[in-house]
Write a structure and sequence with these properties.
This protein is mostly helical. It has a domain at about 50-120. Helices cover about 85% and strands about 0% of the residues. The protein has 4 helices and no strands. The chain has helices at about 1-40, 45-80, 85-120, 120-145.
Length: about 160
């Protein structure tokens, strides 16, 4: 019995691992594309890049953690909606709103740090090109035909 469970576990891991590796490879590719796009669009010199990227990456990591908190809170509200009381919904909503405020505070702090390394003109341009990159990425995703294993969802 234990051997069968072990074999099933190994087989499952072997079947699922490629999907996780592919997802990670896609994330790495997007990150590389974003770095190249921002560096090019801002015309960052090597000296500016050296100062800019550690600050930017730190900001992105903090923002990612907050977005994860928000996502988890929203998912928890929806999965437990039937059993939750009004007060619990209020707690979750306030938590989400506080996290969004925290997001704004982090962005304000880090954009000022970035401005001290590359100037306010390039920082203002950064804010614009981040949105452009995201839109470009979304458009590319919509233009690609879906993978055969992921047919389009009909709404």
């Amino acid at each position: 019995m234990k051997t069968k469970m072990m074999q099933f576990g190994i087989l499952t891991l072997l079947l699922v691992a490629p999907y996780f590796l592919l997802a990670q490879a896609k994330k790495d590719k997007v990150k590389s594309m974003k770095i190249a796009y921002i560096t090019d669009e801002l015309s960052l010199s090597p000296t500016e890049s050296e100062k800019f990227w550690p600050i930017y990456n730190e900001m992105e990591e903090k923002m990612k953690n907050i977005r994860k908190e928000i996502k988890n809170s929203i998912e928890e509200m929806h999965t437990k909606a039937e059993d939750m009381k009004e007060e619990e919904f209020k707690k979750h909503i306030n938590s989400i709103l506080n996290a969004e405020i925290q997001e704004g505070d982090i962005k304000k702090e880090y954009l000022n740090k970035i401005a001290s390394s590359i100037g306010f003109k390039k920082t203002a341009k950064l804010m614009k090109i981040e949105k452009e990159f995201k839109a470009k990425l979304i458009n590319e995703m919509h233009d690609k035909p879906p993978h055969p294993s992921h047919p389009p969802k009909h709404r």
